[in-house]
Amino acid sequence: MLGPAQATTENARSIKEMLRDLIKRGLSFEEGILCIIDGSKGLHKAIDEISGDRAEIQRCQWHKRRNVLSYLPGDDQKTWRRKLQRAYQETTYEAAKERLTNVHAELQQINRTAARSLQEGLEATLTPCRLGLFDELGKSLPGRQLYREPHGRC
Description:
This protein folds into 2 domains: 12-58; 60-138, no CATH class. Helix 4 runs antiparallel to helix 5. Strand 1, helix 2 and strand 2 (55-59) form a beta-alpha-beta unit. The longest helix is centred in the middle third of the chain and has 18 residues, at 93-110. The protein is built from 8 helices and 2 strands. The chain has a two-stranded parallel ribbon with strand order 1-2. It is mainly α.
């Protein structure tokens, strides 16, 4: 953790203030930075505004899985959690994207809300694979361990 920010919401203004403070304290991302976030639009907006094209955003897979599963009956969640986990364990962008596309198609048949939840922000959940960094980062980012829901998430 680089620094705390106390705010009542995850709006872009409070996050931009936190990022500016980190920069004043010496954070440099001229060569790029990987930001792991949940689905907050305010976080995404603040990172984009402060870092421009020097930031890559990794959307937390744990949050994505949790959001998708929340639309499914409890009895079905274990099966879908496994399907999503297998997709996220793929080591290449193409393979992971194909598996997630297949999961999305299956979800479309049984629960369109869960399917929409999976589709929203899906590309950002595949950032390490897209950058060719799965071997370096894929096993250590939150939510990569099969069936284990980490408590210290993003």
